[in-house]
Design brief:
The chain contains 14 helices and 10 strands. It is of the alpha+beta class. The chain folds into 2 domains: 5-99, Roll (PH-domain like), CATH 2.30.29; 117-336, no CATH class. A 7-stranded antiparallel β-sheet has the order 4-3-2-1-7-6-5, covered by helices on one side. The chain has a 3-stranded mixed β-sheet with strand order 8-10-9. A hairpin with a 7-residue loop joins strand 1 (10-17) and strand 2 (25-31). Helix 2 packs across helix 9.
């Protein structure tokens, strides 16, 4: 794959960091032959990204935040002054996506005979077995695409995600601050209406109720809700819930084409928004609080009155006095509180 001729050697200035614990630095970004080259001010290359493996953390947001697919820790931020570079990268990513075979079709070659057998003997094939098979073969990129598609379906009920440009870097830093047991950070989308707490979609996408940001003096309770949603997703993944709700026909379509019927995603989106908070398993959740150096008491205080785990989360708070480090610094928290344009 080669970059389009009109964009070869296009350059812009951006902010890059190799991991969440490293300070961002100003870099020169060059668009070359199939790669994005990130260099320092003396033109020394610092990183090479394949255009085919670049993802965007905040579609439509400014500054645009890009990262290598599968590695949200390394990021490149491009501001308004790099509008031409942003447009070029999006155009190239779109062109590559259109030319890339769908993952479901690639896999159909390897297990086509098995799927044909399932179709012929479908009456004997347990739906939960097909769901387990789908969960084992659907790649991470496809799960992320399904999550974004579900978010699109939800917009008629919730409106668009909040994308105030000055707050998006703080939202990205919050996401990178909180990781699951494997070290993977979520993708956060703040929603203005229709979401209670934090809802998990396929691909690590978490929908955050704006009230968890605007009604709190500190980010600790919000961090708790995010960790709780990630822990619940570990026990039952969002894609698993979607496939179980959608049925065997939708699961079969995902296996054979890589796509899910829009109606299935629409119906499950409505169910998910109306669903109560999933059960909390305090031992596992407290382990997540300890691992991420976050207090559990602020989260417990935000739970509905009478919730059975409030006292446990308070009594066994791994940091009853103060956490070793803040979830976000005060300046980032203030910026994040304006993400919906207030």
């Amino acid at each position: 794959m080669t970059a389009l001729t009109e964009y070869q050697r296009l350059e812009a200035t951006g902010l890059w960091r190799v991991s969440p614990d490293v300070q961002r630095r100003e870099v020169i970004v060059s668009l070359g032959d199939a790669t994005i080259v990130i260099s320092d001010s003396s033109d020394k290359p610092l990183a090479h990204w394949s255009i085919a493996a670049v993802a965007r953390a905040n579609p439509g947001g400014i500054p645009a935040i890009f990262h290598p697919d599968g590695d949200v820790g390394e990021t490149l931020e491009l501001g308004e002054e790099a509008a031409e570079m942003i447009a070029a990268m999006e155009k190239l990513r779109g062109a590559i996506a259109r030319r890339r075979p769908r993952p479901g079709r690639l896999r159909a070659v390897s297990f086509g005979a098995i799927i044909s057998g399932i179709a012929a003997l479908g009456v004997f094939w347990l739906p939960d077995a097909m769901v387990r098979h789908a969960l084992s073969v659907v790649p991470a990129a496809r799960k992320a695409t399904i999550g974004e598609a579900m978010l699109d379906e939800m917009r008629r009920m919730t409106g668009p995600r909040c994308t105030e440009a000055s707050a998006l870097p703080a939202l990205g830093r919050l996401a990178n601050r909180l990781q699951d047991a494997s070290g993977k950070a979520p993708t956060l989308a703040v929603i203005s209406t229709g979401v209670t707490g934090v809802k998990a979609l396929p691909g690590g996408l978490l929908l955050v109720d704006r009230r968890l940001i605007e009604e709190e003096e500190a980010p600790d309770a919000l961090a708790g809700y995010i960790l709780a949603a990630m822990d619940a997703s570990r026990l039952k993944t969002p894609l698993e819930g979607l496939l179980e709700s959608s049925g065997i026909v939708a699961t079969f379509q995902l296996l054979t084409t890589g796509e899910l019927p829009p109606d299935a995603m629409r119906e499950y989106s409505e169910t998910l928004l109306a669903a109560p908070w999933p059960p909390i398993h305090p031992t596992d959740l407290l382990g997540a609080f300890r691992r991420n150096e976050v207090r559990s008491t602020p989260f417990a205080n935000r739970l509905p009155e009478g919730h059975p785990e409030i006292q446990t989360l308070k009594a066994k708070d791994p940091y009853p006095e103060a956490a070793p480090r803040p979830v976000l610094d005060d300046a980032d928290w203030v910026r994040l509180q304006g993400i919906c344009g207030n």
